[in-house]
Amino acid sequence: MSVHRTKYAAVVCGGGPAGITVLGNLLERKVGPVLWVDDLFEAGRVNKAYREVPSNTKVKLFVDFAEAVSPFQKILKETPSPHAVDYLRGLPQDTGCDLGYAADMCLLLTEGLKKAPGVEARQGRVTDAVLSETNDWVVNVKLSSGETSKAISSRVILCTGSSPTNQQLPVSISDLSPLELDHALSPTLLAKSLPKESTTVAVIGASHSAVLVLINLYNLASTTHPDLKIKWFTRHPLRYAEFMEGWIKRDNTGLKGAAAAWAKENLEPAKFGSSPVSRFIQKIAYEKENETRTYEQELAGCNRYVQAIGYTRDPLPGLKDAAGSDITYNYQPDTGSFKNVDGKQIPGLFGAGIAWPERVTDPEGSVEWAVGFWKFMRYAKRVVPDWN
Ligand SMILES: Cc1cc2nc3c(=O)[nH]c(=O)nc-3n(C[C@H](O)[C@H](O)[C@H](O)COP(=O)(O)OP(=O)(O)OC[C@H]3O[C@@H](n4cnc5c(N)ncnc54)[C@H](O)[C@@H]3O)c2cc1C
């Protein structure tokens, strides 16, 4: 049954940090009414999966995020103290914190935004959006109640997020089962996922997430799980963010914060042999061309494997044109907009967040995707005024 059919200025699809950022910027620019749709309105993956992860950004950037637009400032003013942003303000500003603090800030902003004038929040999933001949989007939402609802809007903004990449292993090893990256990133869930008996876990990757998983596994092996062994599969040396004059080299791809400090101290070749971690972690360095042979040899005898090899966009709502054909889209990472296969701008379709980040070029010409709360905010402030 269809329960609504109303005209909106924008439909924001997703209630993670990116959806919160975009909504704050739309309201600041008096764009409304806005339909805001999310499965749960529980701040996306930062709250669901990363609460125990140490941040790779400074606390100050979370506070800056919370104060960046007037609709957020109003929410903070109207929320009784002490609230989540007060707790962030009370921490040392120039170091990281557990992402639980940032998640609580997002939950606070979510509650405020749901009640903000000009916002209608609908819990459910945007299933598809059809671009009419008059360039309006007809957006279908499957509500969590099971009902469907329809909305008409001149803009659809995809803040749909990304999840850990899982690739089929090129080898088949009996008794080897996957360990979800989300579980391995949480010390609490990891402890519950692994038995106390002799277990070998393979960690694949040299990313920020891979190092966080190695830290969590090492902490278990050196305390409650002494029979735990770890094999770390890596194809390249660890890469670190470097603080240059006025900019950060490998700002988005290099190790930062607690993970970088731990890796420098324990995993670098000059330190590894004498570090206590080498009692539990065996490093398997290999080249791409030897991958299958290395896996065949080294995964044999492992019980679990966790892939920490990046993040992949979550499935999008179906996007169709007025004739019912699928719209093929190319993301424009300088404007947050999309073009079709003919290079024409798709009217009213935009994206933000980890799935649709800004592309940045550093002073040495290296290109990266700008991912992080403050980067989403900086990008939104620049591009949202042009999302007409
Ligand atoms: C391990 C890790 C550590 C990180 N650490 C930091 C850090 O320290 N500092 C920092 O600034 N950033 C950090 N980030 C980066 C980034 O801030 C987070 O990844 C953030 O969660 C991305 O937010 P998002 O809103 O783009 O996506 P998500 O958090 O994934 O949110 C997407 C939301 O959209 C909803 N959704 C999706 N599709 C639909 C649909 N069709 N209909 C309705 N709702 C939908 C989902 O349910 C979800 O709620 C980290 C990322 C990772 C992976």
From TrEMBL:
Its cofactor is FAD. This is L-ornithine N(5)-monooxygenase [NAD(P)H]. Pathway: Siderophore biosynthesis. It is an enzyme of class 1 (oxidoreductase). It comes from Aureobasidium pullulans EXF-150. Belongs to the lysine N(6)-hydroxylase/L-ornithine N(5)-oxygenase family. The keyword Flavoprotein applies. PANTHER family: FAD_NAD(P)-BINDING DOMAIN-CONTAINING PROTEIN, PYR_REDOX_2 DOMAIN-CONTAINING PROTEIN. Pfam families: Lys_Orn_oxgnase. It catalyses: L-ornithine + NADH + O2 = N(5)-hydroxy-L-ornithine + NAD(+) + H2O; L-ornithine + NADPH + O2 = N(5)-hydroxy-L-ornithine + NADP(+) + H2O. InterPro entries: Agnestin_monoxygenase, FAD/NAD-bd_sf, Lys/Orn_oxygenase. Keywords: FAD, Flavoprotein, NADP, Oxidoreductase. GO terms for molecular function: oxidoreductase activity. Its EC number is 1.14.13.196.
